[in-house]
Each structure stands twice: as C-alpha cells, then as structure tokens.
Amino acid sequence: MNDEIYKLCEKLIPSTYVQQGREARHTHENKIRILLEHKKWPEDGWDDDTIELLLQELATMDSNNFGGNCGVGEREARIASSLVAKRHFRLGHGIGRSGDIAAIQPKAAGSSIMMKLTNAMALDCLRVTGVRSTAACFVVPLATGMSLVLCFLALRQKRPQAKYIIWPRIDQKTCFKSILTAGYEPVIIENRLEGDELRTDLDEIQKKILELGAENILCVFSTTSCFAPRVPDKVEEIAEMCKKYEVPHVINNAYGVQSSKCMHLIQQAARVGRVDAFVQSTDKNFMVPVGGSIIAGFDAQFVDKISQTFPGRASASPSIDLFITFLSLGANGYKKLLKERKEMYSYLGTELAKVAEAHGEKFLNMAHNPISMAITLSKEGEDSGKAVTQLGSMLFKRCVSGARVVAPGSSKTIGSHTFPNYGAHSDSYPNAYLTAAAAIGITKQDVDLFCKRLDKVLGQWHGQGKSQSVQNHVAEGTS
Fold first, then answer.
1. What was the pLDDT predicted at 478?
2. Which terminus of the chain, N or C, has fewer Cβ atoms within 10 Å?
3. pLDDT at 473
4. Which residue(s) pair with 294 in the sheet?
5. Could you give the CA distance from residue 304 to residue 5 in angstroms, rounded to a whole number?
6. How many CB atoms lie within 10 A of CB 13?
7. Residue 186's CB: how many other CB atoms inside 10 A?
C-alpha cells in the first residue's frame, strides 16, 4: 500500500487508526528492506506473516500473476489446481533459464529475486557454520547424488581426457552411482582399520594417482558425514595431495553442515590444499522436504560453471522451502538447533553405551565421527548374519527408524563392481554392528524412547537361540 492508498483510507476511518496500521505494516516491510539491502541471513527468525507478505509481493512480480497478462508461449506458468498454486505461493515459473539454472527470468522477476536471496542466505549459512572462505554457492533442485554428477560433468569440461575418479569407499549407493552416472571408472580405495574406526588410506590414494597419471584422474571424491564405523575422510591431507599433483577434489558433505567438525575439516582443506566443490543436502541439514542440495566452492567462476552445466530451468520448490526455512529460523535459531544436536550426540552416546554394556555388547570408539555411532551385535551360529538382519526388523516393527544393522558376509553388485561385506565400508570389518545418528532435530525424547526399545529388543534377541524364535518376536509387532 502506497501513500495515496493510506490517504484514501483516512477518508473512511480516523487517521490515527490508519497510522497505527501503517506502522504495523512498516515493521514487516522494514525486515524485507534490510534483507534486500544486505542480502544476509537474518539473525533472528521472522514470523509467518512477514514471510507470507514477502512471498505474496514476489509472486505479484511474476508474469503469470499479472492482471492483464496475455501469454502465448509454451510455458506460461499456468496452474490448473488452486491447491497446487497455493502450495507454491503462485510462483510457477521455476528458477533459471534454458542455458543456466542461476540466470534471471524476464517473465519471473519475483521468482528470480527469491532465488538470488536464497542463494545469498545459503552462502551466509555455510560461512556462519564454519566454511568461512566459501566464495559462492547455489541451491539446485537435485538431491546429493545428482548434484555430485553435475560437479563431475563440469569438471569434464576442464579435464576431457580424464577417465577415473578416486573414491575412498563408503557403502552408500548414491555416492558410487554418481560416479557411474557421470560416465567415469571408479577407483575404489579400501579404508584402513584404526582401532574401531575405518579411516582414509592416504598412501593408497597417492599410489593410484602416480599409477594412473594425474592427467587421467577427474578428481578425488572424498566424504565428510558418514555412518559409523567409517569416519570422515582425512580431507585436509587429501586436499594437500590434490594440490601437489594438480588433481581436482570434490567433497560429499551430505549432512555435514550440522557438524562444526565436518565444516572445519572443509575449511582447513581449502586453506592448505585444493577443494573444487563441496555438496550438501538441504533436507538432511535444514529439515525441509527431500529434493535439494547446495553446491559450493572456493572459486566463484567454477561454481558458476557448474550452474551453467545444468540443462534447462528447474523447479523452484527446494529453493522456496529453504527460503522460508532460513527466514523462519534465522541464524540464531539454526545455531540453537546445532547446539542442541551436539548435546544430544553426547547424550545418545552415553545412553547407548549403557544399553550396550547391559547386554554384553561393546560401544565402538568413534572419536572422529561427530554424528554417527555404533555398538557391536554379537550372535554365534551359522545364521548369525540372518539374526542380525532380523534385529533390524524387530526395531523397525517397533517404530524405530534410522538405525542400521550391518552383518558381515553380505555382498552387493552395483554396476559391474561387487562389494564384499557391503554396508560395512570395508571388505573385512571384524564385527556385526548397529548404528544410530544424532542428526539435527533429534530430541531427548527420541533418544530415551530409542534406548528403551533397543534395550527390550536386545534382551529378546539375545535370549533366543534359534532364528525361528527371533522371527516369532518380529511377528509380535510394536509391543
């Protein structure tokens, strides 16, 4: 509402009342002005009314919401369902243009502003959470695996002769399939067992670089956040090695933003060596629906090259979700969640160790993994692997999600590669085990309920001598 409209309102009701309403609206508009002026993540979270006001104002700037618009193109952001229109705040044009996902759309000024602000707040977030020297980033409507593919394809333009990606093994299909999807030959580096932890074999990485030739390697593909007993790669040392041999380095930081340790590793790696890009999931770090990632790096030109590699424009949904969440939480709200997560990590470790000890199991020492932890699962007999798997079923039947059980001996073929002992990140990890993670948003109630149910299930599981008896307990359901 402009000055003229307020003056007209004063002809209908007393001017003091109009002024009061005007000042209330000015409070909302002042927050919006500061965001547009500074392009920074607000320190304090906004109320829903202010966020909705901004989204409504942005939507009116898109051509599909113009009162007298006459659209005769093949894509005019026409939305058949009013529910769908409401779900997207009438922002129907998506983000980017056919040649660049970060480009401005002439028909969608509002959507383009939203995209730019989201990317700016994402950059601010990465810096605030520990990677202070991040030069640029953008939100892409792809989950982590396909976002990594995009990074590899951008590197291909710089290294067209490369055939290989060196990859310290982590048993998550997404990571491995991103290499295959990009058309590269994975060079799998088996992890070293150090104590209870699986850690990076730096000597083997260097050996493969020298053996294959640096010019034939697209990149070293390392990992920060991961399931125990694997721990974050030694990304600082890898970065130094990549700098020495002039080999690119891409980091899978899928759920590492929530961990100050993971973010510090990336910052240090960039300081002492080479990091070309690092990728993080939006849903795993910011509690939004699945479907987005943040691709970031320390060379703004290369990050721009990655965005230009994306073929066509894309859905704005992940950006809208993250835009709303950034404004709703504010930097202080997110820092509070990170502090609570770290506290719950310690609490989960303490309580899980108690349960393990009570049932004669070992709490594995995962000092270098800041999110995930594990306990052994001891079961004798020929069907021990099957029994371990059934323990996972028992927990799932009791509404425990996210816990993973891994039994030695199973193998899995992905593409043309067969992984012995799949799930354990190693050909020969000595124990069957169960993992649990203290991820962002976890509460004390979650920990207490999980440990209570695990305690009961382990008691039943250890009390059974035959797998058939275990199956009977699975059938009991959630009791």
1. 42
2. C
3. 38
4. 139, 280
5. 43
6. 10
7. 20
Residue 226 CA to residue 422 CA, distance in Å, equals 15
DSSP state of 137: E
3-state secondary structure of 230: strand
Burial of 267 (0-12, 13-18, 19+ CB in 10 A): buried
Sign of the CA dihedral with 73 first, then 97, 95, and 182 last:
positive
- pLDDT attached to residue 43: 97
pLDDT at site 381: 57
Residue 149 and residue 401 in contact, taking contact as beta carbons nearer than 8 Å: no
Positive or negative, the CA dihedral 378, 383, 389, 394 is: negative
Specify whether the CB–CB gap between 200 and 208 falls below 8 A. no
Q: What stretch of H or E contains 42? A: none
- Between the alpha carbon of residue 282 and those of residues 115, 140, 141, 291, 375, the distances in Å are 15, 10, 10, 8, 29
Structure tokens of 342? 């770290």
How far apart are the C-alpha atoms of 274 and 238, rounded to whole Å? 8
How far apart (Å, rounded) are the C-alpha atoms in residues 410 and 415?
17
> Mean pLDDT of residues grouped by 10 in the chain (479 residues)?
88 91 90 96 97 96 88 86 94 86 90 96 98 98 97 97 97 95 97 96 98 98 96 98 98 97 98 98 97 97 95 92 98 98 97 96 96 90 74 92 89 90 91 95 97 95 55 40
Contact present, 267 and 130 (Cβ < 8 Å): yes
pLDDT score for 474: 35
Determine the length of the chain.
479
Q: How far, in Å, CA of 143 to CA of 287, rounded? A: 14
Please give the structure tokens belonging to residue 85: 């229109």
> What's residue 52's pLDDT?
96
Taking the model in full, what pTM does it have?
A: 0.92
Using alpha carbons only, what angle is made at residue 280 by residues 368 and 165, rounded to the nearest 5 degrees?
A: 80
CA 476 to CA 67: how far, in whole Å?
60
Q: What angle do CA 143, 147, 153 make, to 5 degrees?
A: 155
Please give the single-letter amino acid code of residue 471. Answer: Q
Chain-centroid distance, C-alpha 194: 27
Spatial CA neighbour of 65 closest among 33, 118, 111, 104 = 111
Q: What value, to the nearest 5°, has the Cα angle with vertex 362 and ends 356 and 364?
A: 110
152 vs 186: CA distance, rounded Å: 12
Predicted local confidence at residue 383, as pLDDT: 62
